[in-house]
Write a structure and sequence with these properties.
Layout lengths: L12 H25 L5 H10 L6 H9 L2 H8 L2 H24 L7 H20 L7 H13 L3 H16 L5 H21 L20
Length: about 220
């Protein structure tokens, strides 16, 4: 018999640690594929990939660096536990990205497929991290903050913010690359939109408890 949200237990620390590790690896892998394809995506990963095309720095390192200002918002609005987990995620993504840079070589033959596949990988990584009480980065922090405080769907919010980020990339990338990048961003956001729904999910890590979960 399945547990209802009222009776479901929170994740253990070991479950959280494993999920965050898996999420970091998937995010780093998705970024590596997009980098090899010369594409971008939404969120801080997209900004890091865009900046990485002009700077001799790993997108993973840029991802962690760009997230630093958002930790202030996170500490003030989401609490220390969420902020600490999100900091670990940023460091983890940076570390695994550097590892992929030195141990993996991706050859892209179909940019559209690479965009879609990387979007799925990034979406699943984001989902694993979000379900275990952490954010992926600046955009993820904002999206999850709005989910926790105003019950705005995190996937929908992320897609809206991603549109602005991809729009800012138009002047730096060609229309074909932007079109493929949009495919990946939609694939990523759709996974979060469809599957990160705490009201239907009994395994909950703070801060995504609903009011009835605390009764």
């Amino acid at each position: 018999m399945s547990m209802s949200p009222e009776t479901g237990r929170p994740h253990t620390r070991l479950e959280d640690a494993y999920a965050l590790t898996v999420g970091c690896i998937m995010l780093a892998l998705g970024i590596a594929i997009l980098k090899a394809a010369g594409l971008v995506t939404g969120g801080m990963a997209g900004l890091a990939l865009l900046a990485g095309q002009f700077l001799p720095v790993s997108p993973g390192f840029l991802f962690a660096l760009l997230n630093v200002p958002f930790f202030i918002l996170s500490m003030r609005t989401m609490g220390m536990t969420f902020t600490f987990k999100t900091l670990i995620v940023s460091i983890g993504v940076a570390g695994f990205s550097l590892l992929f840079d030195h141990t993996a070589d991706f050859t892209i033959h179909n940019a559209a497929l690479a965009a879609f596949a990387s979007g799925i990988i990034l979406g699943l990584g984001t989902l694993a991290i979000a379900r275990h009480g952490a954010g992926v980065g600046g955009v993820g922090i904002v999206a999850l903050w709005l989910l926790a405080t105003r019950q705005w769907n995190a996937g929908r919010t992320q897609v809206i913010l991603d549109i602005f980020i991809l729009g800012a990339s138009i002047r730096f990338l060609g229309p074909t690359a932007i079109a493929y990048s949009v495919i990946g961003a939609v694939a990523m956001g759709s996974i979060v939109y469809l599957w990160h729904r705490p009201e239907l999910y009994s395994g909950i890590s703070p801060p995504f408890r609903t009011a009835r979960d605390d009764r």
